Amino acid sequence: MSRLDLPPQPRILVIALRRLGDVLLATPLVRSLRRAWPDARIEALVFAGTDVILAGNPDLDGVVAMPARPSTAQSLALAWRLFRGYDLAISTQTGDRPTNFAILAGRRRIAPVAARLSGRLVRHVLTRSIPAGEGLHRVEDVLRLADALGIPRVAQLVCPGGGSAAVGPGVPYAVVHAAPMFRYKQWTRDGWRALAGELAARGLAVIATGGPSEADRRYLDDVWAGLPAVRRLDGALNFPDLAALIAGARVYVGPDTSVTHLSAATGCPTVALLGPTDPRIWGPWPFDGLTAPWESSGTIQQRGNVWIVQNPLPCLPCQFEGCDRHIDSYSRCLDELSIGAVMPAVAAALAFRRNERQETGGAPDRPPPQSATG
């Protein structure tokens, strides 16, 4: 498709009204835009609370954060603020709210549209559109918008910038992030405790991270009770510092959560414990890009600096919210995942970082990929 014509020094708005991980997975599109229009002013519209994942992003000139459930007055004020303020507005998702903001904000606007009557109607007020993706990895899905704009893809996640590596312990360490947002993505207490013991036995300091919420704190109090060797930093780090901490780790282990996507993006050897989630759509995106798609299930899969560990029951990946199909449900695939199934991936990830350091003479400092296509 031909490149979309924009005026000099265009103003561009990228709309990503989803959770933290989704916003991070939209950063390859922002980087593609920055490379295509280096003199543009590029801003993002996101929900308040998810803007933290964009802190220090070098490709953005500004972030507009809106309440997840705005009042009528707040919605009207935001619409007035955005109205025709941009030469190009891009919605990264289907749905009335993000698409309407793109239509309001941009003189030119692009969005994915669903294959139903409302989508066919909306397509007529968009400058360009793409069909809603089915079964694509979320990064690949978002980068189809770059294709529709006629610009090269840059398939690289961009981490929060400006963090301090001084939060690390000064000795070789592992980062363990045990608390996902929802119960159905949790591994077992015994599993996390056994993992900490195995990492310590390999001579690594163990740093436990987590969110600032009271629910996270209670959960982690239970997981790490009586393990003084585990240094807890849950709730103590902003996202730039968290990214810097993980980047310096010998290995990171975590469940299906935004921090696991962040870890993969830093280049740290990352072990992701997945339950009902379909890795073909939501598997962590490796630092050097996803050269081959993730399989739907397997005991251990590796792509680049990422290992996915699953308990491949016949129902996997169901894509449901646990066995009871709600966010507080258990997930049998995770409850029955043993430490013995996890440690081979951890050992491989540790060897990966060791070999990498031997090849580079120190910590990896690889340039980002310039472009990629999928």
Summary of the model, kept short:
This protein is an alpha/beta fold. Helices cover 34% and strands 18% of the residues.
Word description of this protein:
- This protein is of the alpha/beta class and 374 residues long.
- The chain has 2 domains: 11-149, Glycogen Phosphorylase B (Rossmann fold, 3-Layer(aba) Sandwich); 165-360, Rossmann fold, CATH 3.40.50.2000.
- The protein is 34% helix and 18% strand.
- It has helices at 20-25, 27-36, 72-82, 96-105, 117-123, 138-149, 189-201, 214-224, 239-247, 258-266, 279-282, 332-335, 339-360; strands at residues 11-16, 41-47, 62-66, 86-91, 106-113, 128-131, 173-177, 205-209, 230-232, 251-255, 270-273, 300-303, 306-309.
- Strands 9-8-7-10-11-13-12 form a 7-stranded mixed sheet, sandwiched between helices.
- α2 runs parallel beside α6 (138-149).
- The longest helix is centred in the C-terminal third of the chain and has 22 residues, at 339-360.
- It is globular, with a radius of gyration of 21 Å.
- It starts with 10 loop residues before the first strand and ends in a 14-residue tail after the last helix.
- The relative contact order is 0.12.
Percent of residues in β-strands? 15-25%
Terminal CA distance? 15 Å
Could you estimate the helical fraction of the residues in percent?
Answer: 25-40%
Architecture of the largest domain, according to CATH? 3-Layer(aba) Sandwich
Structural class: alpha/beta
The largest sheet, given as strand count, sense and whether it forms a barrel, is: 7 strands, mixed
CATH topology of the largest domain: Rossmann fold
The number of helices is 13
List how many beta strands DSSP finds: 13
What is the overall shape? globular
Give the full name of the CATH homologous superfamily of the largest domain.
Answer: Glycogen Phosphorylase B
CATH structural class of the largest domain: Alpha Beta
The rounded Rg comes to 21 Å
**Secondary-structure element series:** EHHEEHEHEHEHEHEHEHEHEHEEHH
Mean pLDDT reading: 92
Main-sheet strand order equals 9-8-7-10-11-13-12
The total tally of domains equals 2
